[in-house]
Amino acid sequence: MVKVNEVIKGIEEMSGHPLNQEEGLFHGSGDAEVSGVTVCWMSSPDAIEDAGKRGDELIIAHESLYFPYDLGNSRKNSPDWPDWKTNKLRRELLEEYGINLVRIHSSSDKFNILDDFAVKLGLGNAVSDKYPVKIYAVPEIALDEMLKHVRTTMNMKGLRYTAPNGLRQKIRRIGLPWGGMGLFVNVSYQEKLIKMGVDLLIAGETDNYGFRFSAECGIPMIETSHELSENPGLENYTKALARKMPGLRFTFFENKQIWESFP
């Protein structure tokens, strides 16, 4: 039977490089045997239970297993983080079902996740393609019409956005701070897109600082959500893994948008 370490090796072969710093085995053993694999955006309790009830021995998660984010690479962790209710619940569920967990983050981002966000939005191929900075050209469209388009293509009830020059601002070039690249900690990514002449940013997740950074440059931003911007790519990544390792059963678990809009 295939082992966890062999799955990791297959992923490295697909990526063309070893796992990156933030990636790797975060729960379980590399020598554990695997017949079924669940791929998901985040190893939330419902994702773990779904994998466990199916009998999958491995979860490949895109995001960090525990809070605070990127726990293993931070020097400012609260010493009691293992006892936080969220962390404890996830760990106990993994142990209950005997599931191993591997995080694959930037490797899958580069493999296809950004590109598949663009496809989901109907943007086609990038006119400037220097990963991770990509620009997409569209026929001229007003911001209010683009808001309707994004809401429809992403199947969302409501959107957060900025309109520094009004809703009739004309849009021709779009940048995509997918996932969490629209957050304030990643404004340097916004700056790269702005310098390349975008008229609009369509983000996965952003925040007040992130919105303000681009708005003060006269660039509107539309927020979808972290998980919705990356789920299409992760579903296709699951299919790519299945082609690479046909002896294993791969299942994609769709993490739903966590926040709601109040009418």
Per DSSP, what share of the residues sits in E-state strands of 2 or more residues? 15-25%
CATH superfamily of the largest domain: NIF3 (NGG1p interacting factor 3)-like
CATH architecture of the largest domain: 3-Layer(aba) Sandwich
Structural class: alpha/beta
Q: What is the straight-line distance between the termini? A: 51 Å
Order of helices and strands: EHEEEHEHEHEEHEEHEHEHE
Low-pLDDT regions: none
Averaged pLDDT: 96
- Tell me the domain tally: 2
Number of helices: 8
| Overall 3D form | globular
Q: What percentage of residues falls in helices of 4 or more residues? A: 25-40%
- Main sheet overview: 6 strands, mixed
- What is the radius of gyration computed over CA atoms, rounded to a whole number of angstroms? 19 Å
Q: What fold name stands as the CATH topology of the largest domain?
A: Udp-n-acetylmuramoylalanyl-d-glutamate--2,6- Diaminopimelate Ligase, Chain: A, domain 1
Number of strands: 13
Could you walk me through the main structural features you see in this protein, from its secondary elements to its overall organization?
- By secondary structure, this protein is of the alpha/beta class.
- It has helices at residues 4-15, 45-54, 85-97, 106-120, 143-153, 187-195, 208-215, 226-244, and strands at 2-3, 24-27, 33-34, 36-40, 58-61, 100-103, 128-130, 133-142, 160-161, 170-175, 200-203, 221-223, 249-253.
- The protein folds into two domains: 2-104, Udp-n-acetylmuramoylalanyl-d-glutamate--2,6- Diaminopimelate Ligase, Chain: A, domain 1 (3-Layer(aba) Sandwich); 109-227, Udp-n-acetylmuramoylalanyl-d-glutamate--2,6- Diaminopimelate Ligase, Chain: A, domain 1, CATH 3.40.1390.30.
- The chain contains eight helices and 13 strands.
- A six-stranded mixed β-sheet has the order 7-8-10-11-12-9, sandwiched between helices.
- Helix 2 (45-54) packs parallel to helix 3 (85-97) and helix 4 crosses helix 8.
